[in-house]
């Protein structure tokens, strides 16, 4: 017999998948203690179907940074010039005539407070403009070169300011490799995938690895070169079952000491295009109070979403976790809206 709670979640999910925008979807909800679980798929997606994590990959990058800090191998206060060559960095952040490039810290990157522009969305040669029509490789130096052509939005660490930009996490990925002596894929395996016993979660390194397709509106597109290139900011692949294991571990203290969240939960609102989303130390925060929920919500969602429709959030007020994917990259707000509606249904 289905509970009223289950029926509420099913109603939200069904209403979402009735949209012409959604062709495939998977949702998994679990309580923190494991006493409640609800899973539903649509369009052939199931609990073990692989999907692109996209920017949820940033949580994996955050995890590695926090573990390396715990091991005393780096500090969030370190200037990134300690790990990245000055020739590479110089000129990446010139704001109002002053070059802040060599003053950037790991914390600036993790909290999205560097002020660096986002090459994924900004400029006539933005990645988002190109990926609809073509698949292509790019490497770290390509991203650095592109970012240097764009204007930063504010000086690093400006109080109350945050700007979401993939380059912040691309640089963090390079730092992880430098400090750990491992490729990013192997660092993920060592610090996250192997300890959690994940079998279907990985960072693809070649086109021989299985890379899922994604919808752009009604068109199915396949972009293996882009996914392989996205690495630390958005290249990961997982399933609903394994992403649930990860997000519970991330917030539950199984990967690093969760006391660190007291210093990571300093949130700043992101740029207007990101809607209600704020950013803390390596993860998103979505306040559920106020006008965004018609004053019906309580608490917050913490975790991450991805531009291809993926989501992994913890709702502390009800001790619930929401993970899944709506597989649609034409509207990045979809997974946020679904997660918020699920939280409101949890009353």
Kindly describe this structure.
With 347 residues, the protein is an alpha+beta fold. It has a single domain (4-18, 27-345), classed as 3-Layer(aba) Sandwich (Beta-lactamase). It has twelve helices and 14 strands. It has helices at 4-17, 57-70, 86-89, 106-110, 127-131, 140-148, 166-180, 184-196, 224-234, 240-252, 261-264, 334-345; strands at 25-31, 37-42, 51-54, 94-95, 98-99, 214-216, 219-221, 236-238, 268-269, 278-279, 284-287, 300-305, 310-315, 320-325. It has an eight-stranded antiparallel sheet, sandwiched between helices. A two-stranded antiparallel sheet has the order 3-8. The chain is globular and about 60 Å long. Residues 48-342 form the Beta-lactamase-related domain. It holds the Pfam family Beta-lactamase. This is Serine hydrolase. Keywords: Hydrolase.
Distance between the termini: 20 Å
What is the CATH first-level class name?
Alpha Beta
Count of structural domains = 1
Q: Strand count, sense and closure of the main sheet? A: 8 strands, antiparallel
* Gyration radius from CA atoms, angstroms: 19 Å
Defining key terms:
globular, two-stranded antiparallel ribbon, eight-stranded antiparallel β-sheet, 14 strands, 347 residues, alpha+beta, Beta-lactamase
């Amino acid at each position: 017999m289905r509970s009223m709670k289950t029926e509420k979640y099913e109603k939200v999910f069904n209403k979402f998948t009735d949209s012409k925008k959604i062709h495939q979807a998977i949702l998994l909800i679990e309580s923190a203690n494991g006493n409640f679980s609800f899973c539903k798929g649509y369009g052939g997606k199931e609990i073990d179907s692989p999907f692109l994590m996209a920017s949820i990959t940033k949580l994996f990058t955050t995890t590695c940074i926090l573990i390396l800090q715990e091991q005393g191998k780096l500090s969030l206060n370190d200037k990134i010039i300690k790990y990245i060559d000055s020739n590479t960095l110089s000129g990446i952040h010139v704001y109002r005539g002053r070059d802040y490039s060599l003053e950037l810290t790991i914390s600036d990157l993790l909290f999205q407070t560097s002020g660096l522009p986002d090459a994924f969305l900004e400029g006539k040669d933005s990645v988002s403009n190109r990926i609809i029509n073509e698949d292509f490789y790019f490497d770290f130096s390509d991203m650095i070169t592109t970012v240097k052509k764009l204007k930063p939005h504010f000086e690093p660490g400006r109080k109350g300011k945050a700007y979401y930009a993939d380059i912040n996490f691309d640089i963090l990925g390079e730092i992880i490799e430098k400090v750990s002596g491992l490729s990013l894929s192997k660092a993920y395996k060592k610090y996250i995938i192997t300890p959690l016993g994940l079998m279907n979660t990985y960072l693809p390194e070649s086109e021989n690895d299985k890379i899922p397709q994604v919808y752009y509106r009604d068109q199915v597109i396949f972009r293996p070169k882009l996914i392989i290139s996205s690495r630390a900011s958005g290249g990961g692949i997982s399933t609903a079952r394994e992403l649930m294991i990860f997000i519970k571990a991330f917030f539950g203290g199984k990967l690093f000491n969760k006391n660190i969240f007291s210093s990571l939960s300093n949130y700043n609102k992101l740029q207007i295009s990101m809607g209600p989303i704020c950013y803390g130390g390596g993860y998103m925060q979505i306040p559920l109070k106020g006008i965004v929920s018609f004053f019906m919500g309580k608490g917050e969602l913490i975790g991450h979403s991805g531009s291809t429709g993926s989501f992994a959030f913890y709702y502390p007020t009800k001790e619930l976790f929401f993970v899944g994917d709506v597989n649609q990259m034409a509207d990045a707000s979809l997974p946020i809206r679904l997660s918020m509606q699920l939280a409101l249904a949890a009353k």
